[in-house]
């Protein structure tokens, strides 16, 4: 559990460090904002392409080997930053980012069902949310570490790629070391979904309709849809946070960036609070409540009412906190042998974050506050899934 939970933090660091690279590449490689946006497209595009192959690999070779594959691709992608920096080629960097993204996609595809399988199905939502709390820690470390190394005082105004090369060489070595240590961890080749023998069928992940194909399970199909819109809302909200602080609040880019650490801290707090509340409130009901809260927050943010709206923007990440892990966990309920395949499609939903920010950007070019009306659509889809989950699962 400790090893697998650490994986959640690692991909949180890697994904948010891409935001720092975005800005650095604009300066070092003389890219436009549209061109540098291909950094995120390369990473999240890999999620879409690698989701199914990762699930098939996990199904054939087991959880442990799936983790080792993900870490290996992660490390290889990081090491490829060295020749990319030497060549000064953005195309080469995108190849490196794509391979790194394939590693992250594999880790996400494997880690969620892995954590879910380490105990009673009825508490799998709590375990995944707890593990995802460390992903939130990673989203705070990534920008802080990247900004310190790439934009530190001693590097102010520098446009060379030496720091990028050194940073990702260190990451590659660290991930390779983690992969080596994980290879010595004793993990059963196949982990059954454990249950208390006296707890009843709800405790076990048994396929309630084994004769049905995967996409005939309504709760799974709705979970994939909800995850797509969830990732879309996250991508758009995060992408324009600094712009909102700068244009609506009058912050400098530095101050707005510092508030982004608080923004990510709200997600960390939300995951711990959400994990605790799930002991008393059914996960799907809590998800529905949080989705409605974010509809309200988006409406307030879109009004551009100074600190009131900015506080609502911070709270969006608090209520967003449990959405990705809870949708993932609910989507895998009672799928039995289809669980690993289901994890592949749920991971692919992250591709929503590659496209939705462009739609928000079209509105944001005219009015940054009004752009926050768009995620309301996403949260309403999540609410429908959560509110009707028990009916969908029948």
From TrEMBL:
TM helices/strands, residue ranges: 38-58, 65-85, 91-116, 128-151, 166-185, 220-242, 248-274, 286-304, 310-330, 342-364, 370-389
Swiss-Prot/TrEMBL keywords: Cell membrane, Membrane, Transmembrane, Transmembrane helix
Domain Major facilitator superfamily (MFS) profile positions: 1-394
Listed Pfam families: MFS_1 (PF07690)
Domain of life of the organism encoding this protein: Bacteria
Membrane topology: Multi-pass membrane protein
Primary localization: membrane
Any one of the GO CC terms: plasma membrane
Any one Gene Ontology molecular-function term assigned to this protein's record: transmembrane transporter activity
Compartments where found: Cell inner membrane
Keyword Cell membrane belongs to the record: yes
Name of protein: MFS transporter
Organism of derivation: Pedobacter yulinensis
